[in-house]
Every structure is written in C-alpha cells, then in structure tokens.
Amino acid sequence: MKKILHNKLKRSVLYTVIGLSAAYAGLSYVGGDVAQAQPAQNETISVSMAGLPDFTGIVAETENAVVNIRTMETLSTRARGGFDPNGDPSELFRFFFGPDFMPPRATPQPRQRGNNQPERTVPRGVGSGFVISDDGYIITNNHVISGASKILVTLNSGKEYTAKVIGSDQRTDIALIKIENDEKLPTLKIGDSNTLKKGQWVLAIGSPFGLDSTVTSGIISAINRDTGEYLPFIQTDVAVNPGNSGGPLINLNGEVVGVNSQIVSQSGGFMGISLSIPIDEAMQVVNQLKETGKVTRGRIGVQIGAVADEVAKALGLEDDSGALVSNVEQGGPADKAGIMAGDVIIGFNGSEVKKWSDLPRIVGQTKPDTESNIEVWRRGKKQTLKITVGEVPSNPADEVVASQEETEKPVKADRLGLVVGNVSQETMTRLRIKGGVQITEVDGPGQAAGLRTDDIILAVNNQDINDVKQFEEIVGKLPKDKAAALLIRRENLTQWVPVTPSK
Questions:
Q1: CA-to-CA distance for 276 and 231, rounded, in angstroms?
Q2: Cβ-proximal residues to 193 (8 Å cutoff; 6+ apart), any chain
Q3: Three-state SS for 495?
Q4: What is the DSSP letter of 479?
Q5: Predicted confidence (pLDDT) at residue 384 exceeds the cutoff of 70
Q6: pTM of the entire structure?
Q7: DSSP states of 370-405 as a string?
Q8: What's phi and psi for 6, nearest 5 deg?
Q9: How far is CA 446 from the centre of its chain?
C-alpha cells in the first residue's frame, strides 16, 4: 500500500512540474499530456526537446552589439561634503551638523570660495547601450550619461573606448553617443514596435549591477502604458535592474523593439514590472540627434486634460476619447487657428486622439511650420480647422492668471446651488472671453461637483452663456437626475465639470 501511494505521489509531483513548465513556455497542459502551442508565423525561436524556448541562437546573434557604459564625474573634495583635517577644526562640526553650525565662543571664519579646491574623478554610474551603426553610434538613456564628465564604453570583447555625446533628449530619456573604432562594429537590427502584442516573448541584454552581458527573458505585459510621461511605454515582466538602463529589448527575430528605461519598484530592484521606450519613438529622436544634435518638437499652445465620461455624454460625444482644451495660449498656433477653451480635440493630421496624452506625442512629432488639420468637437458637432504648428521654445511662455474681480449684483440659481453674477468687461478683456457668469456663492450640487467661488461659467452643455438672465433660464430647463456639463474657467484653466441639478 505504501509503495502504491508513493508511486501516485511521484506521478502527481511530475505532472505538477510539467504543468508549470508548460505554462511558462506558452504550452497547454491537459489530462497529463503536454500539447505544444503553434508558434506564430514570424517566430524564429527554437524549441528544445523538453518543450521550453531556447534563446541561445538569438543571444549569440545579438549580444556582441550590446555594450556596457560606465560614467565618471569630476567633483571637488568640498563638494563631496568632506572636511580638511589640517584646516579649521570647526569644519569637523560643520561636517556633522551642517554648514551653518557655529561652535561656542568660536570666531566666525569666512568661507573660502573659488576654483582652488582639490578635485577628483569618481565613478558615477553604470548603464547599458547598443550599437546601431558599424561606425560606432550607440543608443542609451539620457539619465545614464547626464552629468558625466567622462563616458567609458566596453564592448563584449572587452575593448574599452571613450565615447562622446552626439546629443540627448531629457523628455524621452534617449541619448546618442559615439565611439571611434578602426574596424566595423557589430550592430543590432531595428524592429517595429507597432507590431508588438501582449504575451509576446522578448529578451533584455544589459549590465544589471555592472554584470556585463546579462540576458533575461519574459513577455510583453502591456502596450502603450501611459505613466504620465511624454511616451507610451512597453511594459514587460523581463527582469530589469539598475544597470540595464539603455539596453535593448529584443524580439524573437533578434530585432530591437524597445530601449529599457525604467522599473516600477518599491524596493529599487526588480518586482516584475519593467518599462521600455518603443524603438519607433526612440529612432525618431535619434535621427534628429544624429542630424542636428538636438530635438525639435512641434507645439500648438494649448493646455489639455482628459474628458470625463459624464462630460462626454453631456456634449454628445460617443465616448470619452479626445483631449479637452482647458486653456489656449494667447497668440499661439491654436489661438490663431480658432481653437477655444472647452473644445475637445479628437483628431490631428489624420491621427485619432484616443487619449488626451496622445496629442502631445502626435503634435511633438510634427515638424514646426507644418500646416495641419485639427478636428475639434464644439457645441455638439465636429469641426475641422487649419493650424500651423509652432516650435517648442526653450522657455515656456508666461501663463495668464486670472485675479478676483467684482461682479454685478448676484442672482441665485437654485437647482445648481449657485449664486452668480455677470462678469465685468475688464475681466472678459483680460481673460479673452465673451460673456459668462461668475460664481459668488456655491452650495449643494455645485459644491459637491467641486465648483468654487470666482469660477466663471462659460457654457452649459452645448450652449454659450452670455449673462445671468440667460443662465437662469437654461438652468431652469435642465432635466432632473441627469448631469449637465458646465464649462468652467478657473484662473488660467478651463474645464468641463458635470453637475447634477436638484429636483
């Protein structure tokens, strides 16, 4: 009996291990049999006898084009927070208690400034990169080389070079560096990140914690992951740690599809969420850096935000896609094109704006001075306007901030819990608005929706507000228990706010 149970236990454990292996390899386990899933048509991955993926061919083909990057920084001894043991003894106290510490009965000593402080070159950090042309151009992250006084590149063969920076872009975290070599260097093929799909196998090669030519693997976890940055990231579960930054994310065809850039972690180490810059986005930056040493981006001069679902319904939109214009820069491209605060931008130059964060990316990739079509949703219908794209300036324009103004005698609008008054002509001129009413008191539904005193109501649903009388009439006809969208101007921003009237 013990022998039978022992044999059953062995089979159970064996099936469990096979099942886990099959799940890891993308295979299905049914009734104790392992059924191999059919590979995609463009897959070049080999499968071992055990049914697990074998990446050895891809690694052999690509790893020689991946480099280790070490950066150095020149600092003064005093800048490192140290003290001179042969100098003023009070410096020892300042080292521990801060630069303003004054020992009892000590005579104040003037701080010495100037360039006569001793300097030393210290290691700054470790990262990765990959060669994209045989004459020595290398892609890495901006944060890997930013602030470095010296950049050392080590090839997989062990040869070390000093690199020069061709250009870098902080906004996309992409940098292009170059090394000089008499022989042609191995390069990586550039893939197409637009064809990536969830669940697809990918590899990362880099130098985590300085360990050269380390290979890790995983799958695509998400595409177009919006983290609030300028780019939509590729999310993977590939093990990426400090030192992997700037290294390639490689598909099963041995092509680069991303540049490893960030990890999402509470500990500072790998926790299963890694973010990579899509190679299509990276190459647009690299091509500009190679040509001019800098990145030129388009702009249209608007502040935007997401479209709330209730606002979309109130405005007659099919869904909450698009970018809600909250402010238009005076004299900017959008202003000249006739775009108004409260418009919802739903398309630009033939590209659909699905999320508000799509617009800066699409516009940024447009060459300045290009005339483009921009589609906006305004007062219940779509309009197409012509706009000439501007260039992102080095210093952003000063923002116009609305200050408090006196209003005319307030009138109560009971159903929204608001007391409003007409907007003064001076305020309308300064804010470049026509009409509207200004809130002087707020309670009930309006307060619950987040409205404040001094907010200016420019429109209700798809109707512009001219004065208090008209506003009162519109509010009185609003259907009960259905949210109305109020276009609110608050300081220098304009936004739609859904408010459900009381009965």
A1: 10
A2: 234, 257, 258, 278, 279, 280, 281
A3: strand
A4: P
A5: yes
A6: 0.62
A7: -EEEEEEEETTEEEEEEEE-EE--SSPPPPP-----
A8: -65, -45
A9: 33
Comparing C-alpha atoms, which of 417, 406, 463, 476 is closest to residue 436?
463
Structure tokens at 378: 């305004």
Tell me the one-letter amino acid at 104. P
Q: What are phi and psi of 359, to 5 degrees?
A: -65, -50
Structure tokens at 312: 């979309």
Q: What is the DSSP letter of 238?
A: S
Catalytically active residues are 143, 173, 245
| One-letter amino acid of 41 | Q
Tokens found for residue 325: 């214009």
* 3-class state of residue 310 by DSSP: helix
Two tokens, residue 271: 């926790």
Distance, CA of 315 to CA of 364 (rounded, Å): 28
Distance CA 390, CA 367 (A): 8
Which residue, 434, 444, 453, 429, is CA-closest to 475?
444
Tokens of 133: 């042309």
Q: Which residue has the tokens 């300042």?
A: 94
* DSSP SS3 for 47: strand
CA distance 298 to 171: 13
Residues ≥6 apart with Cβ < 8 Å to 89: none
pLDDT digits (tens, 9 = 90+) for 4-31: 444 444 444 333 232 333 333 333 322 3
Per-residue pLDDT tens for 132-170?
A: 999 999 999 999 998 889 999 999 999 999 999 999 998
